[in-house]
């Protein structure tokens, strides 16, 4: 059976995976895959299109690795799929700070957990991996952070 082909506007959920293992795991979660569509000019992302629980999902994978790969991937994805309403960064969370599971077992972050950032005050809710430093007292010293998400809808 040939995969269904939808239009760019049919996709409302954007999903970014930066590592190939994340892309492979994400692919396994799709209920069905859709036929590929052409990307916008200067968009070098690789896209996997499909459906999950009735939602049309775009899974984006960067063509180029490095600092800012996720931001570039999301920007390109929104340029190509302009009807996206929800964005997810799906990954292994290798840089999420976690207290020792022996000291605070209910605050331990494990593979499979969902981590949601929340902007507060002048803080955007997300710290770029090289913009924070764990001090000897265990507290995270923030040198900088990413901007707050834009106001939506």
UniProtKB/TrEMBL annotation:
<dbReference type="InterPro" id="IPR035994">
    <property type="entry name" value="Nucleoside_phosphorylase_sf"/>
</dbReference>
<dbReference type="InterPro" id="IPR053137">
    <property type="entry name" value="NLR-like"/>
</dbReference>
<protein>
    <recommendedName>
        <fullName>Nucleoside phosphorylase domain-containing protein</fullName>
    </recommendedName>
</protein>
């Amino acid at each position: 059976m040939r995969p269904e082909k939808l239009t760019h506007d049919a996709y409302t959920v954007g999903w970014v995976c930066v590592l190939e293992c994340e892309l492979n795991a994400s692919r396994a979660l799709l209920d069905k895959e859709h036929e590929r569509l052409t990307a916008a000019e200067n968009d070098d992302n690789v896209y996997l299109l499909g459906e999950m629980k009735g939602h049309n999902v775009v899974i984006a994978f960067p063509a180029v690795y490095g600092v800012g790969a996720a931001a570039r991937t999301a920007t390109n994805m929104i340029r190509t799929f302009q009807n996206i309403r929800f964005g997810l960064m799906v990954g292994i969370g290798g840089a999420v700070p976690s207290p020792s599971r022996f000291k605070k077992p209910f605050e331990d972050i494990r593979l499979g957990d969902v981590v949601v950032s929340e902007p507060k005050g002048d803080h955007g809710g997300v710290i770029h991996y090289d913009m924070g430093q764990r001090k000897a007292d265990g507290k995270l010293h923030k040198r900088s952070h990413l901007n707050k998400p834009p106001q939506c809808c």
